[in-house]
């Protein structure tokens, strides 16, 4: 768990990630004291940041280990056990819903959208943030191998294209005034190399790609890191919408 938390912390500390979180909070259009839930709250950073803005923030996560870590890290924040597809809240009982880096992990993201609509009060806003797993941008000597590795990793995710579908998902589940923004996160060397190692792992790469080819590909990326020419960028979609 500590390794996962370290990786999440590294991603959260990226300047672009910090800016995007703040932008997602703004898009909720909350006022002081409003009740807001962060679905898939993970290590709890967003819940603590929303609470620091004067909101009654509640984190929802299904993982007891992650919930324990969040409570230890942010003892003044509120976290409850729950699933995106079955939120533990009454109908129209919250003023804002935020879901970040969750929908791609769901077999049926539409169920989460239905739940977000159910618990949100009329006229209030929901915000969804996610990575497009098929669109990672990597500068490499072998673009065909790079594309194959990216697509292979995307296929291991239940809903890799959920982020690009956010506008449609909101529209089909009773939301209006839908806004969509796209951000590009340029990863620093340490974070990028960790991501690239994941792409190259035997658990995600196609069997037709040899270990030797992947080793050479990774060596190229490490060489780029040592010369300051490594380039890994991730498209992130953020959509916000109002419940009718």
Please name the defining characteristics of this protein:
Rossmann fold, SAM-dependent_MTases_sf, 8-stranded mixed sheet, 8 strands, 9 helices, single chain, alpha/beta, 41% helix, 244 residues
Characterise the protein shown here:
By secondary structure, this protein is of the alpha/beta class. It has a domain at 2-132 and 158-185 and 234-243: Vaccinia Virus protein VP39 (Rossmann fold, 3-Layer(aba) Sandwich), CATH 3.40.50.150. It has nine helices and eight strands. It has helices at 2-12, 15-27, 45-52, 64-73, 109-119, 143-155, 166-171, 189-200, 211-227; strands at 35-39, 56-61, 78-81, 94-100, 120-131, 137-138, 175-186, 232-243. Strands 1, 2, 3, 4, 5, 6, 7 and 8 form an eight-stranded mixed β-sheet that branches. α8 (189-200) runs antiparallel to α9 (211-227). 37% of the residues are buried. The model has no long low-confidence stretch (mean pLDDT 95). GO terms for molecular function: S-adenosylmethionine-dependent methyltransferase activity. This is Methyltransferase type 11 domain-containing protein.
What is the number of strand segments? 8
Helix content: 40-55%
Number of helices: 9
Average pLDDT works out at 95
The main pleated sheet reads as: 8 strands, mixed
Under the CATH scheme, the architecture of the domain at 2-132 and 158-185 and 234-243 is 3-Layer(aba) Sandwich
Strand content: 15-25%
Q: What Rg do the Cα atoms give?
A: 19 Å
Overall 3D shape: globular
CATH superfamily of the domain at 2-132 and 158-185 and 234-243: Vaccinia Virus protein VP39
Q: Which fold does the CATH topology of the domain at 2-132 and 158-185 and 234-243 refer to?
A: Rossmann fold
- Overall CATH class of the domain at 2-132 and 158-185 and 234-243: Alpha Beta
Find the structural class using helix and strand composition. alpha/beta
* Distance, first to last CA: 40 Å
N-to-C series of helices and strands? HHEHEHEEHEEHHEHHE
Low-confidence stretches: none
């Amino acid at each position: 768990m500590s390794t996962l938390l370290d990786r999440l912390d590294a991603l959260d500390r990226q300047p672009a990630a910090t800016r995007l979180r703040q932008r997602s909070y703004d898009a909720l259009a909350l006022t002081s004291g409003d009740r807001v839930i962060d679905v898939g709250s993970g290590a709890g950073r967003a819940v603590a940041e929303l609470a620091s803005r004067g909101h009654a923030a509640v984190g929802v996560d299904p993982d007891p280990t992650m919930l324990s870590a969040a409570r230890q890290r942010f003892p003044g924040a509120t976290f409850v056990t729950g699933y995106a597809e079955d939120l533990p809240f009454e109908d129209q009982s919250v003023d804002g819903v935020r879901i970040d880096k969750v929908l791609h992990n769901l077999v049926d993201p539409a169920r989460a959208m239905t739940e977000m609509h159910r618990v949100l009060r009329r006229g209030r806003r929901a915000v969804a943030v996610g990575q497009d797993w098929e669109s990672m941008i990597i500068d490499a000597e072998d673009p065909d191998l790079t594309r194959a590795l990216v697509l292979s990793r995307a296929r291991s995710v239940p809903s890799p294209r959920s982020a690009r579908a956010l506008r449609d998902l909101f529209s089909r589940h009773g939301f209006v005034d839908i806004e969509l923004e796209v951000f590009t996160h340029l990863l620093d060397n340490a974070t990028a190399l960790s991501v690239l190692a994941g792409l190259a792992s035997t658990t995600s790469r196609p069997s037709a790609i040899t270990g030797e080819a992947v080793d050479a590909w990774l060596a190229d990326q490490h060489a780029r890191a040592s010369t300051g020419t490594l380039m890994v960028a991730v498209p992130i979609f953020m959509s916000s919408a109002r419940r009718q």
